[in-house]
Specification:
Blueprint: E1 3-6, H1 8-12, E2 26-28, H2 31-43, H3 47-63, H4 71-86, H5 95-106, E3 110-113, E4 128-130
Parallel strand pairs: 1-2, 1-3, 3-4
Helix pairs in contact: 2-3, 4-5
Length: about 130
Amino acid sequence: MAVGLLDTSVLVDLAEPDLAAALPDQSAISAISLAELASGPHLATTADERAGRQARLQQVEAMFEPLPFDVAAARSYGQIVAAVAENGRSHRRRVGDLLIAATAHANGLGLYTRHPGDFAGLERLVEIVGI
């Protein structure tokens, strides 16, 4: 049975019909993804966009109990940053993504994402599953 952590990019596209078949048998999310979704309505430029983002946030909140960014994830973050730096990439450009990857690493979960390139260089630490 596959268990995986869903990246924010997957949560944004959760209603897409083609996505369901690619999801793990059991899914979890990070509190970091929930924080990213919570910022969405505040950054919307139209009322329709704001309403859509708020609806998505409420849907995700109802579906998942997020994994916390805890001490284990904080320790994993150090390894994640080191791996990114080792590949010559900046760890500062995608802090949210790296915090999510650290949550996956700390919990021994594969990371399901719509943007696997955002996690390049982390494959030896986290199974990155592009969907």
